[in-house]
Design a protein that fits this description.
Helices cover 37% and strands 12% of the residues. The chain is of the alpha/beta class. The protein folds into 2 domains: 165 residues, Nitrogenase molybdenum iron protein domain (Rossmann fold); 132 residues, Nitrogenase molybdenum iron protein domain (Rossmann fold, 3-Layer(aba) Sandwich). The structure holds zinc ion.
Amino acid sequence: MHPSGPTTVTDLGVRRRFLAGVVLLLFACLPIFACERAAPNSSRGPSAARASGTGGTGNTGGTGGPLKIVATTAHMGELVRHAAGALMDAPHASAGPRLELRVLMGEGVDPHGYKLTRSDAVLLDNADLILVSGLRLEGKLAESLAQLRASGKNVLQVGDELPRDRVIIVSDAGATEEGAPKVGTPGEDAAGAAQHLAAAGELEADPHFWMDPELFALAAVRVGGWLADADSKNADAYDSNAAAYAQEIKNLDAYARGVLASVPEQRRVLVTSHDAFGYLSRRFGITVRSVQGLSTESEAGVRDVQDLVELIASRGVPAVFVETSVSPRTIEAVVAGVRAKGKAVIVGGALFSDALGAPGTYEGTYLGMMDHNVTTIAIALGGQAPPRGMAGKLTQKPERVR
Ligand SMILES: [Zn+2]
């Protein structure tokens, strides 16, 4: 089960989403944030972020050995690697490496159901800094992370520190009518939304914030500030590296906007296994529908599949997508259903939702993963994009609809 409780899929497999900004007051009362300290506003930049460092071990870089960092997901590892830049590669031969990074979840690993191994526990125990994606993505690690934090470890949960009005809040109840508002569409006024959510009684923060490049750029700056705090001698380097990476992410953001906008509007529907693309939807105005909910631990029902089949058939959506870290079973059922109606649909490719590609490949980086996703989506749905992506580096050519 999902850590926040039963994530029952709604009757339609389509959930009504609300921006937290609409319901800021309610959001502040969410139990998932109850035990967190007040979140610093990471949009204020590195110096503001640094002033609010998560209580921890102070300047652990000055003790002689390398600063040992453990990141839960590969996305988080990317933030550390880029903020560290050359500091990661031990340029100071006499001093040894300044930073040592270990990532717990590798290629194709689903974070929602991930459990710590014994060796993970040792790594975490020995870590100076622990970087977590947060917003309950790593649901099964919550207890261990809370214990580590309580023991004085410097744990940064990035998602939980994003500006609150940028975090997507999802309600599982309601939304039984066709054409539920797509993510980010303010469908109700604040009072209406608040009432609706209160009645629903079940709220969740969508943890997949990296799908909005602007939020991931904010996270990059926040992590730069966090490292600068821990290794203050190199503070300027972390800050400037993080700022440079944030700029690269913004370039990717512009590319993504262009290629996704080239998809004919009627076909701008992204159908995937689980609900990992809500932030992409909000950022780029593409409707997202999934068979499962926010967590891969939620169950999909026959009706969820049938409703997606109807949507795809009626709108002439040419392609649906599987995910590298999720079983393709439910999407295969959707494809079979559409074809049984005599309509053509293909699996347009495997998207990277919660895991990056293989280490050492372009798709094994955040930029490469996002480039792959948006290029694959655009081409499969009938839009225009360079076949090898924004940088000509994609290893697989996306399938074009025939
Ligand atoms: Zn997910």
